[in-house]
Design goal:
7-stranded mixed β-sheet, Lipocalin, 15% helix, 2 helices, alpha+beta
Length: 160
């Protein structure tokens, strides 16, 4: 890390089409968070080996025990804007009244339309250790994951 106050972060996702592929895998984006101004605000930098994406990351609301809201705003090429937010819960289920309150907060304070919000189905989650492959996108780009492609090629030859 360039800045001693920065720390590394990972964003792990399963691709939306992973339920039709006979392999369990995850895609991990690596980046860094650097404190920016007040409490809970950071500059985020996602590395992809070509054009690193930067933006603002914040945790505007949390009770530290049950939930947190995180929000990320990125600008691309000076005119495209992307905003995303997540309501995180330490439990698989959240009280409906509390969830409604947090959705309203995202809608009113951050102008995220309610019809653009959706729930993430976590019923078929796979533990990281159980994944067949873990593709990592970092400052070296996808090259850091290419070694796993030989495993995929080998497994594809085994299937009928």
């Amino acid at each position: 890390m360039e800045d001693k106050q920065s720390f590394e972060v990972e964003e792990v996702r399963r691709p939306p089409y992973s339920d039709v592929i006979p392999l369990d895998f995850a895609i991990t984006n690596t980046g860094s968070l650097t404190p920016k101004g007040g409490s809970g605000k950071y500059t985020v930098r996602w590395n992809n080996g070509i054009i690193p994406f930067t933006g603002t990351y914040a945790v505007p609301n949390t009770d530290y025990d049950n939930f947190a809201i995180d929000i990320e705003c990125q600008e691309f090429f000076g005119f495209l804007r992307r905003i995303s937010a997540t309501i995180l819960s330490r439990n698989p289920e959240m009280d409906d009244a509390k969830l409604g309150e947090l959705l309203d907060e995202l809608s009113t304070q951050f102008e995220i339309p309610r019809n653009r919000m959706n729930a993430v189905d976590q019923t078929n989650c796979v533990e990281m250790e159980a994944n067949d492959f873990r593709f990592i996108v970092d400052e070296n780009g996808i090259r850091s994951a290419l070694k796993d492609l030989k495993k995929i090629e080998y497994l594809s030859k085994l299937s009928p």
